[in-house]
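Sat 14:20. Reprocessing the chain from the morning session after the first attempt stalled halfway. Input below, unchanged.
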Amino acid sequence: MASELRFHLNISREQALRYYQGMAKAVVVTTTTGQKLQFPAEHIRPFIDQNGISGQFKIQFDNNNKLIGLKRV
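Finished this time. Tokens:
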């Protein structure tokens, strides 16, 4: 059974550029339940726009804690 966590991102254009260019390899967030979560930065690249990244997201993992998907909600 997959598990799901939610979190909010508010990353400036300058910071998002580091993720987009691959200079930053991981994203570390605090979920809405207070857990620290780290995942590969490549998964946020599709959500970067000219202003950076802002919004509520949900991330899903399988039983082995392998990332299944990331979606903006």
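Residues 3-72 form a domain with the OB fold (Dihydrolipoamide Acetyltransferase, E2P) fold (CATH 2.40.50).
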